[in-house]
Design goal:
Two copies of one chain form a homodimer. Chain A is an alpha+beta fold. Chain A has two domains: about 10-80, Winged helix-like DNA-binding domain superfamily/Winged helix DNA-binding domain (Arc Repressor Mutant, subunit A, Orthogonal Bundle), CATH 1.10.10; about 105-230, no CATH class. Chain A has eleven helices and nine strands. Chain A has a four-stranded antiparallel beta sheet with strand order 5-4-9-8. In chain A, α2 packs across α3 (about 35-45). The first copy, chain A, is elongated. Chains A and B meet through α1, α2 and α5 of A and α1, α2 and α5 of B. The structure holds a DNA duplex.
DNA sequence: AGGATGCTTCGCCGTGGCCCGAAGCGTCCG
DNA sequence: CGGACGCTTCGGGCCACGGCGAAGCATCCT
């Protein structure tokens, strides 16, 4: 005999996201990096005491993973599915209340980081190209790279070996602004970080602190555009 | 200068789902049918007065559409994206807290109604078959049926003309139990209702009232299995 | 050591929300 | 027309939850 007033699992999860402070924390974590409790407290605009309580609840609820390191406690989203759920919910919010348009429609859509892989137009185009050429094929739980694909990707600076040691996730994370699958999982993460490291992509600082979700806007640098065209035959001018 | 304590859109939407009574209402509406305020009050386990307030908030928040009819007021989910968001969130809940397993794992997964189109194993298999044979190709905003596809589908009792008048939605609604796209939109709806009407599929009564989401379980009848095999070459025995 | 820093626990207060019963409209029916 | 029914609005009570400051641990630095 279960308590009829007990919130079902759906309400319970939603309640975790429903608090403004917690939502700000989660949004901040959508970038994919792990942040300390103090940083999250600042982002959320509450004291350390309050933030501590929130973080405990989020971790307890399974949305966050905690990684203690010295006197810091790093927090990150528990999984790609958590990120996807927040993404979907956030997309719904903007779709329902189209209060604010994208600052510069096309620009913002072009490339961005979702969770921590490439999303937006670039992410979709990349996904299309890599699978279209047979360089990458989705397999249950991850991706399979053809011999040709390995060479191509590694020529762009992507460390495939490292991507393969990372936990695999078959998150065909749906991108609400493009409505097409993009490249997620360990490989997507590796690609994004490699190209950011090599300067092909550059992060833009968050424009508005309380932006829809604290997505990381990205710009493709001229070198990046050249590299993608030469290495992968991906011409983004079109 | 916006109020810094104002809940962002993410938190606002989540808050709508976060209340147990409202969550039960939304879950009940996941079947896709429109329900009256009274029915929803009963489902949620609250008085009509309380339910009225909840429904007003949900409609105000854009999650529900209201359709007054005589002295009744019918409510339904505002869009497929709303359904998808709830679906995703619900999936997250069960994934994180695998409290209760599916009663009979395989059976329950086999076929069910998501929102109001086919989901589960059957939905995915159908999607695969129809697109694999080139009978159906996704186009922005809906589906395109080849000449062959039209004949095949209409032979199974699907009214394509009616499906085309329905509002189109390119909801490649991701199915969390199968993690593959299934057939959504006006066509998906039409297919589901046609096959249910002809007895190929039969609805099962909800087992537990407070089930994860009030998904409609479906069984494929022997006639349905035969019809799918003969008409579409879809053999579900495998 | 001793002190600074990061984080958590505790106790308290304030408020927002949820809930209900009663009353007020609109609609349908005999 | 009167009454039943469906739904909404209003007023009031109640509890949960978010917020803070102070105190308590743990860790790092010198």
């Amino acid at each position: 005999m279960t308590d009829p007033t007990a919130p079902g699992p759906l309400a319970a999860i939603a309640a975790l996201i429903a608090d403004p402070a917690r939502a700000r924390m989660l949004a901040a974590l959508m970038g994919g990096e792990a942040l300390t409790a103090g940083e999250l407290a600042r982002v959320a605009g509450v004291t350390a005491a309050t933030a501590s309580g929130h973080l405990a609840r989020l971790a307890e609820g399974g949305l966050l993973l905690v990684h203690p390191q010295g006197r810091h406690r790093y927090h990150r989203l528990a999984s790609e599915e958590v990120a996807a759920a927040i993404e979907t919910l956030g997309g719904l919010a903007t779709r329902i209340a189209p209060v604010r348009q994208w600052k510069h429609g096309e620009d913002a859509r072009r490339a961005r980081l979702c969770w921590n892989h490439l999303a937006g137009r670039l992410g979709v185009a990349l996904h299309l190209r890599l699978t279209g050429e047979g360089w990458l094929t989705p397999v249950p739980g991850g991706w399979d790279a053809s011999r040709d694909g390995r060479v191509r990707l590694e020529a762009t600076g992507v460390d495939l070996a490292r991507a393969e040691t990372a936990p695999r996730f078959a998150c065909d994370c749906m991108d609400w602004s493009e409505r097409r699958p993009h490249l997620a999982g360990g490989l997507g993460r590796e690609i994004a970080s490699a190209w950011i490291a090599s300067g092909w992509l550059r992060r833009l600082p968050a424009q508005a602190e309380d932006d829809i979700l604290a997505r990381r806007r990205l710009v493709l640098t001229p070198e990046g555009a050249r590299g993608l065209k030469d290495g992968l035959g991906l011409d983004l001018a079109a």
